[in-house]
Design a protein that fits this description.
This protein has about 220 residues and is an alpha/beta fold. The protein contains seven helices and nine strands, in the order ααααββββαββαβαββ. The strands form two sheets. The chain has a seven-stranded mixed beta sheet.
């Protein structure tokens, strides 16, 4: 976990966008459906089922067409939510924001706007938080940024709750300029988190992940 150059980050973002197959809607839909196990894993570990679910929101009913998490009027910021944020599974939010620099095609941005989710197309380090943010969500986000420390501290300063699940000790590559650690998260946030290896089938999360729900 370190601060990298803006040039290195821009290189990573271009590589990440290319890997999503955004501009082939049919291929992206297959990619999205294949990642459903991962979305369930993230939702479980950041306690969306526990805190916002109900008797019908069981994991075996989780799908991309059903809004199963009732947020009870909260304002949520999803850092690096990508093209298929967990906010798409949610309803009854006061305001919802996705902060992501990705170059999404219209069919993706339209899906968010149709559900009243605002996209802030920028690096998370540059996002100016609105008043009254209840929660910040981060899952598979911080391996892609240039200053994870600033993002974490801003989230802690401007929200009541942080829900987070991030891969650790994964090493770096062209798409991922950050090698995150449990120690880095705990020292920066001043919290004690947990670590799990979800062992999900590809392309879902595998390997060690730091996670927790932290209230500030």
């Amino acid at each position: 976990m370190e601060i990298v150059t803006r040039e290195r980050w821009e290189q990573a973002i271009k590589a990440e966008d290319a890997g999503w197959d955004f501009h082939d809607k049919a291929m992206f839909t297959r990619h999205e459906n294949g990642g459903q196990h991962g979305q369930i894993t993230y939702a479980r570990h950041v306690k969306l089922f526990e805190h916002f679910g109900n008797s019908t929101s069981q994991e075996n009913q989780f799908n991309y067409n059903e809004r199963i998490f009732d947020l009870g009027g909260k304002t949520i910021v999803d850092i690096a939510g990508g093209p298929n944020s967990l906010l798409l599974r949610c309803k009854n939010y006061k305001k919802a924001y996705i902060v992501d620099p990705g170059d999404f095609p219209d069919y993706i941005t339209d899906r968010y706007r149709d559900r009243g989710i605002e996209i802030a197309k920028m690096p998370a380090e540059e996002f100016v938080y609105p008043e009254g943010v209840d929660e910040v969500w981060m899952y598979n986000a911080l391996a892609h940024v240039y200053d994870p420390f600033k993002i974490l501290l801003e989230a802690k300063s401007h929200s009541k709750t942080l829900r987070i699940m991030e891969g650790i000790h994964c090493g770096t590559n062209i798409q991922h300029p950050q090698d995150l650690t449990q120690e880095g998260f705990e020292k920066t946030l001043g919290v004690k988190g947990e670590v799990v290896d979800p062992q999900d089938p590809p392309p879902s999360p595998r390997g060690l992940h730091f996670f927790g729900v932290f209230h500030f």
